[in-house]
Structure formats: structure tokens, C-alpha cells
Amino acid sequence: MKSVTTSLVLAAALSAAAPSLYAADGILLVEKSTSGGATTTNQIQIEKNRMRAEMANGGGGNQTMIFDGAKQVLWIVNNEKKTYSEITKEDVDRLSNQMSGAMQQMQAQLANLPPEQRARVEAMMKGRGGMPGGAPAPKTEYKKVGTDKVNAWTCDKYEGTLNGQKNSELCTVEPQALGFTAGDFAVAGELQAFFSKLMPQGSENMFRIGSAQDQGFSGVPVRRVSFGARPTTAEITSVTHQNFSDAVFTVPDGYQKEASPFAGRGRGRQ
User: Fold this and answer.
1) How do strand 232-242 and strand 165-173 relate by DSSP bridges?
2) What values do phi and psi take at 184, rounded to 5?
3) Distance CA 129, CA 162 (A)
């Protein structure tokens, strides 16, 4: 009888602990990135409304991008210098309005140019990701070209082209193949939309889940290849459920705030 009672107590204790032990709400992706002959291993941590991603800054250093979807705030942390900058939704909206106004002024100026000269200027702007009149910048178009293998996953391979030139490759799997749903990755789409108002072309290289309707590709990229001056290949090596502390999504203590290049006047270091 004592043995039965002990077993029941243990079973009840394990049942009560199950949510904290097994029902992890977050996603941990480990990603191997190769660029310029150097290979780094980075992590992407995702919760319902928060996301943290490590990234190389091109100079051999390490930066961290932290996004709070509920607050609509993005922090870019320089771990080498122990500094950070903050970008808010107000910064993004203001800059977007400024860029739209500048484009409209440029369109008025272009209207006074001879047709051939105007065509050359418009072609140059299009190649740099800007369009006269504040029109949306051209987006990468993806075409499925077959399947491939990335680590443990068989994935759908896509080629991306921009202005008729190949600029990227993706290999994707459905979220269920990783043990998740599309909704589990929703905050990655929020971050991409947030960042696209600042750097439309750069945002396309960010990790996000795709759907054929709005992204041109479907699924979670387990491999991303971007071409250009510094070709980069990023491959996911593991995906696991995990719980995270709040500290993961906050700027480390002691880091100094720097002026954001996108912030308004008076929002410098504090």
C-alpha cells in the first residue's frame, strides 16, 4: 500500500511539473553561417512576441538583434564594443514618411528631364532598391527548381531573382517537419516587416517563414544563400523547443546606448 501511495504522489508531482519541464514555449534554432571563408555558429531564439538573432557584422565581430513585437522596438547590440542602439516604431514611421516625401520630390524633378535621361536615372534608382514616387522597392521573385538535402531534412529548393538577376537561393521545409506550426514563427515575419521599412533589400536576407502567396516561397528556410559582394550561406543545424529567461531578450547590463542612425534629433546616448 505504501508503494502504491508513493507512486501516486510521484505521478502527481511529475504531472504538475510537466508544463515547466516539457511544454517549452520557445524555439531555439542553431545556424551555421559561412561568409568570406569564415564560419560561425549562431543562435536564433523565438517566442510568441519576441525574437533574438546573432549575426556577424562583417568585420569579424558579433552583433545581436533583439526584437520585441509587443512594444515594436528593435535593439541592435554590439557585443564587441558593449554598446547598443534602439529603433522604435516611431523612428521607422518617421523615416518612412521622410523617404516617401523625398521620392515624391524626386519624381517631380524627373518629370522635367528629357525622356532618355529620365529613363537612365529611374533604372539606376531601381537597381539600388529605390523607386520614383515612393513606389515599393522591387522584391525578390522566387521560383521552385527542385529538392535538395540540408542536414536531416529534404527541402524544396528555390532560386531568387531581382531585376532579372539571380541574387539568392533558399531550401525550405514545412514547419511541421521541424515539430512546429507556422504560427510559432509569426514574430519573425513581424521583424522582417519592421526592418523592411528601413532597408527593403536587406530585410529579404533575414530569417522568416514564407508562404507562396506573399513571399513567393513556402516553408521555413533551412538553408539561405545570398549572393553579392560578400556571399553568405546560412544553414540550420538543429531546431528544439526551449524556454528562455527574460534576460535573453534584453540588452545586457552595463552596455552603453548609442545614437541610432534612424532616430530623431535629441535621441542620442543616455
Assistant:
1) unpaired
2) -65, -20
3) 10
Query: Residue 231 pairs with which residues in a beta bridge?
Result: none
Rounded distance between C-alpha atoms, residue 224 and residue 239, angstroms? 16
* Helix H or strand E segment including 2: helix 2-21
Helix, coil or strand: residue 66: strand
The model carries a pTM of 0.72
- One digit per residue, the tens of pLDDT, for the chain of length 270 reads 444 444 434 333 333 444 433 446 899 999 999 988 889 899 999 999 999 998 755 444 578 999 999 999 999 999 999 999 999 988 888 876 776 666 666 776 777 777 777 777 766 666 555 544 445 567 889 999 999 999 999 999 999 998 889 999 999 999 999 999 989 999 988 888 887 777 665 566 678 887 777 778 999 999 999 998 889 999 999 999 999 999 999 999 999 999 876 655 444 434
Q: Which is nearest to 208 in space by CA: 226, 187, 228, 229?
A: 187
Strand 141-150 with 83-88, pairing: unpaired
Sheet of 141-150: strand order equals: 141-150, 153-162, 165-173, 220-226, 232-242, 26-35, 38-46, 50-56, 62-68, 73-78, 83-88, 256-257
How far is Cα 210 from Cα 189, in angstroms, rounded to an integer?
8
Q: Rounded to an integer, what distance in angstroms lies between the CA atom of residue 129 and that of residue 159?
A: 19
Say how far apart CA 94 and CA 88 lie, in whole Å.
Answer: 10
What contacts 265, CB < 8 A, 6 or more positions away?
none
Q: What is the C-alpha separation between 207 and 53, in angstroms, rounded?
A: 9
Cβ-contact 220, 211 below 8 angstroms = no
